[in-house]
Design goal:
By secondary structure, this protein is of the alpha/beta class. It has helices spanning 3-17, 20-43, 49-67, 69-81, 111-125, 163-173, 233-238, 327-345; strands at 87-91, 130-134, 145-148, 153-155, 177-180, 188-190, 199-201, 209-213, 220-225, 242-244, 252-255, 270-272, 275-278, 283-285, 290-291, 299-301, 303-308, 311-316. The chain has eight helices and 18 strands. The strands form five sheets. A seven-stranded mixed β-sheet has the order 2-1-3-5-18-17-14, sandwiched between helices. It has a four-stranded antiparallel β-sheet with strand order 10-13-16-15, with no helix packed on it. Helix 2 runs antiparallel to helix 3 (49-67). The longest helix has 24 residues, at 20-43. The relative contact order is 0.11.
Length: 347
Amino acid sequence: MGDNFYGAMWNKIRQILEISIVKELALLFAGVLAGVFIGILLTQKPVLETKTGILGALVFFLILLGSGAIPKMWHRYNIWRRRSALKVGILNDMGGDLKNKEIYTGTDISPGAWKKEIEELARVKGIEIEVDLISLENYFDMYNAIINPYGGVYPEYDLKNFKTMNKILSYIYEGGLFVNVADIPCYWACNPSIKPWRRIDTALRDAPYAYRNLDEDRLIIPIIRFPLFELTPFTRELGLEVYNIEKDSISKWGILEFENGFERKSKVIDIKVQRAAVVKEYLDPIIKSKEMSSPPQKKVTPLFFVRYGDGKLLSSLIFENAEDCSETTRNELERTLAMLIMDFIDP
C-alpha cells in the first residue's frame, strides 16, 4: 500500500471528524463519561487511579473532538509541516484528456507532464520534493504549492456556492501558492461529478444585460449578458483587473523580458499575449509590463504574482496552445513557471 492509499485514508478520517453528527455524539459521550469520571473521583479509591486517568483523558479527547478542535489542530499542523516537508500538488480531478475542450482552455499540457517537469527540475536542483496528482475534493493544506493544469477551467464540486473556489482562496490566504498555468484563473467551473463534463461561465451570474425595445411602447427586455473578466468571483476577490488585448498593438508582446527580482536565463523568444492584468500595488509583474495603446491605456503584464494574505497566486494569462505559439515558446513558458514554483517553495 503506497502513499496514495494512506493519503486517501487520512482524508477520509478528517472528513468523518468534521461531520456534525460525529461531533454531537462525541459531546454526548463526553458528558456521560464526565459524570462517571466525577463519580469515581468522589469515591477516592486509590486502586482506580490508573483507570481514572485514562477515563479523564478520554473525556478530554471527546470534548476536543466535539468542539471541532482536532481538525483545526490537524490543519495548523499541516501548514507548519510545509516548512520541512516540501510537497507540490497537481490537480487531476478531470484527468488528462487534452482533446476535451470542456476541461482545458489556453493550455494542452497534462497533469502528468507537469508532474514530470517539476520532478525533473527538483532533481537538477538537488531538492527533495514530493509531487502528487491530487483532487480538490480532498484536503490539500499539506502542499506548499498547487498547480491547476486546466488553464481557465477549474474543478468545482459546488456550482451553487463555489465552495471549492473558497477552499482555494483560503489555501492561498494561509500561505499557499496556487498556480494557474494559462488563461484567466477560475473563469470556467466544471463539476467533475457531472458527466459528460461541461464548463460553466462563472462571470455570467453578475454580468450586465444588453436590452432591446420590443414595441412602440418601449417595452424593454434583456436579450444577452456580457460576462466581464473581473466579474468572476475569484478575480473579484483577488482584485484582478484583466483585459482582452488581442486587438491592441502590444498583443504582439515581443521578446520575453523579466522584471527585476525575477531575472533568469531564458531563450530569446517572441510571445503573443491574449490577456493581460493591470499592475497594482499587490500585483507583482514577472514579465516586464507594458502600457496598452488603446483605452484605458494602463500598464499590464501577462505573467505575475498576486499577494493575498500570507500566500500568492502565480498566474500566466498566455495561451500556451495558441496556433502561433511555437514549441520552443511553450516549453520556455512551462520551464519558467516551474522555476518560479521551485523558487517559492525553496527560496
